[in-house]
Write a structure and sequence with these properties.
Elements: E1 6-10, H1 15-28, E2 31-38, H2 46-55, E3 59-64, H3 66-80, H4 91-110, E4 114-116, H5 125-136, E5 141-143, H6 145-148, H7 154-163, E6 177-181, E7 184-188, E8 218-225, E9 228-232, E10 235-236, H8 239-252, E11 257-263, E12 269-275, H9 277-293, H10 296-314, H11 321-333, E13 339-346, E14 349-356, H12 364-367, H13 379-387, H14 389-396, H15 398-403
Parallel strand pairs: 1-2, 1-4, 2-3, 4-5
Antiparallel strand pairs: 6-7, 7-12, 8-9, 8-13, 9-10, 11-12, 13-14
Helix pairs in contact: 1-7, 3-4, 4-5, 8-9, 10-11
The structure holds arginine (ARG).
């Protein structure tokens, strides 16, 4: 293997990636360039540059990818209805392919031979980073120090950091591992590893508890245009701002807390909690609108697509041809998913209380039990006669056999 002279490191400024920065320089004698994407982590990134430089980075990249994240990653997943194992809206999983794209592009610009990340050897994220990197540049060398170095615990990392004068923040003492972006917060480790226990109140980052949420419900209106959420209470919003807004309103009402035992790609089960007010509200509202505007077969088939889509995203296969083909299907289904959904947010619940669409397939004169009814009930007799034909035939032949 040719000598590695320059490495681009996916850098958050936290304990792991700070220690990695130093370790890579020592181990490879290489120059380390850091790369940080702003995806709505909810903390100012201005200190990152200083921190990276004082930890030894030769150059620092910080890119605001919030718009690209929302439009090209979150939105396709929302339209597809992608929610992993019925609960997790995939905030972390959706962010990985975009961060990796930034790393690969930076490596090209910087003529770096390698990229590096701070994922452990037992999580999903290592797979997402590396599969994406290989899809975008099969030649790139990928370094994953956490999988190979001699530092075996957080305490050892803290000791290493102190020995090497790496600046640390107090919150480095927190027992939780937290990954946050606009689409949600993922929280694991510490007391959450005890699956018999309710998450401690301080483990939640952006949502109120139902007890502390307002005593009165909050009613909101969300408008969609061809599957794209575009208005909040009648006012036009860009997707980034709409998501920020819903995280605030939903979070205040304790909406979007999720506690999940999930099946990781590498084979183990783990417990993670999530906070995703905007994602929970938008997935719910979008689906309610689809109930109104999609025909039965498309609606049912789309549920199968949604599950497959969520698995592909979770499993790091964002760049698979199947995911791209499913986008084609999903977009075709969204042509008439336009309209408005009214929701009631109240102490952790998000419930639909109204919907309307110019393309609504609900016809009151057919559904009603009042005298406005225009449905021809007599015609149902013939329908049932033909619909039951295969079962009647089976009953007369095979069922009779079974009884013998
Ligand atoms: N379990 C989630 C996933 O695989 C999140 C992983 C990262 N979580 C964290 N707290 N750092 O997508």
């Amino acid at each position: 293997m040719s000598k590695i002279k320059k490495i681009v490191l996916a850098y958050s400024g936290g304990l792991d990636t700070s220690v990695i920065l130093n370790w890579l320089k020592e181990k490879y004698g290489a120059e380390v360039v850091t790369y940080t994407a702003n995806l709505g982590q909810g903390k100012p990134l201005d200190s990152i540059e200083n921190k990276a430089k004082s930890t030894g980075a030769s150059k620092v990249y910080i890119e605001d990818l919030r718009k690209e994240f929302c439009l090209n990653y979150v939105l396709p997943a929302l339209k597809a209805g992608a929610v992993y194992e019925g609960k997790y809206p995939l905030a972390t999983a959706l962010a990985r392919p975009l961060i990796t794209k930034g790393l690969i592009e930076t490596a090209k610009k910087e003529k770096a031979e390698a990229i590096a990340h701070g994922c452990s050897g037992k999580g999903n994220d290592q797979v997402r980073f590396e599969v994406t990197a290989k899809a975008l540049n099969p030649e790139i060398t990928i370094l994953a120090p956490l999988r190979e170095w001699e530092l075996n615990s957080r305490e050892e990392e803290v000791r290493y950091a102190k020995e090497h004068n790496i600046p640390l923040e107090i919150k480095e003492e927190s027992p939780y591992s937290i990954d946050r972006n606009l689409w949600g917060v993922s929280i694991e480790c510490g007391p959450l590893e005890d699956i018999g226990q309710e998450p401690p109140p301080e483990s939640y980052q952006i949502t109120s508890s139902p007890q502390d949420a307002p005593k009165e419900p909050t009613y909101i209106n969300i408008t969609f245009r061809e599957g794209v959420p575009c208005r909040f209470n009648g006012k036009e919003y860009k997707l980034v701002s709409l998501i920020e807004k819903l995280n605030l309103v939903g979070g205040k009402n304790a909406v979007g807390r999720i506690d999940l035992i999930e099946n990781r790609l590498i084979g183990i089960k783990s417990r993670e909690i999530y906070e995703a007010p905007a994602a929970v509200i938008l997935h719910y509202a979008h689906r309610e609108l689809e109930r109104l505007t999609l025909d039965k077969d498309t609606f049912r088939f789309k549920e199968i697509v949604a599950q497959k889509y969520s698995e592909l995203v979770y499993d790091g296969l964002w760049h698979s041809p199947l995911r791209q083909a499913l986008d084609g299907f999903v977009n075709q289904t969204q042509r008439f998913v336009s309209g408005e959904v009214k929701l009631k947010l109240y102490k952790g619940n998000c419930t639909v209380v109204g919907r309307k669409s110019p393309y609504s397939l609900y016809e009151k004169k057919l559904a009603t039990y009042s005298e406005e009814d225009t449905f021809d009930q007599k015609a149902s007799q013939g329908f049932i006669h033909i619909w039951s034909l295969p079962l009647r035939t089976i009953s007369k032949t095979q069922r009779r056999e079974e009884k013998k």
